[in-house]
Amino acid sequence: MPTALGTPSTPSDSQTPSVAAQDLKTASQDKDAFEKGRKPQRAQRQKSHGPLWIRHSPKDVIQATKLKFPHIDGFQSSLLYQTLHQGGVVGTPQAPFVQILNINDNHWITASNLFCGPNKLCLYDSLKTIINQQTKQKLSWLIRPKTPHFDIQKPAVQIQRSSSNCGLFALAFATLLGNGVKPEECQCVERNMRQTLYRAFQNKKAPVFAYKKNPAKPERETIQVEVHCICRTSHYNEVMVQCSNCNWYHPNCESVPHKGLDTTAEEWNCEICTNHV
Fold first, then answer.
1. Which residue windows does the record flag with biased composition (Low complexity) (predicted)?
2. 79 pLDDT higher than 50
3. Cβ(229)–Cβ(253) under 8 Å?
């Protein structure tokens, strides 16, 4: 019996972040703040050394960072990843990548496979954030493995002291990776990071954050994430149908007929299984 509207492996999360999340690259988001943890207050100063939130557009800085590392894929608009749970799509990097992402609508992280093996990515997070199912789906679009799962490795990177500095650290991790440096071996000078980014905004150049080298600590954890369908992505809240013989599929990916969505039907087979009958 085909099972529609189901969850193939893990329960989906109850919270659905707003699609209007801040974008690190898209011009339409230029007037918005580069969020650093919580939503900004109405009254905000423009000085770089005092506010919790930076009101300048990060577009030029992100573009300058991308141009500085032309050999590295990624640096896509984070807004694209905010619409995946509504059926959106985003390009999967074809080369070693660095990608800054907004998760939970209030936090910035950096993902990369520069120092990972096949079907793995490293997640650089300046807070010890719990990785929910929606974030796992975003990360799966960066790899889309042919294997049944991929691994998320969480190196023990520097933890931010200020609750509003996650965006600064996400960008710092990205620039370190671009320079071939492992973020878990670095200790950034947090008190100077905002001033460094402010100067980068003014000069429209990639920021160069000051840091000192430290011995790397053991990884915080490794998370295994299952993927499904011909799109090879993780499940989050969307409709899926289970083939009677093999995997779970999105109706839009596999062209599931209406009868396949009928949970009272005896069976439904995907195209691959049908052709092998």
1. 7-18
2. yes
3. yes
Reference 35, options 145, 159, 155, 171; nearest CA is 171
pLDDT tens sequence across 16-74: 333 223 333 333 343 343 434 444 343 333 343 444 454 444 666 778 888 899 999 99
Query: Helix crossing, 166-178 with 190-203: angle to 10°?
Result: 70
Cα separation, 32 vs 146, in Å, equals 38
* CA distance linking residue 33 with residue 171, whole number of Å: 15
Domains defined along the chain, listed by start: 1-10+237-277 (3.30.40), 27-226 (3.40.395)
For residue 221, give the amino acid letter.
E
| Average confidence (pLDDT) over 141-147 | 94
Of residues 239, 276, 233, the one with CA closest to residue 256: 239
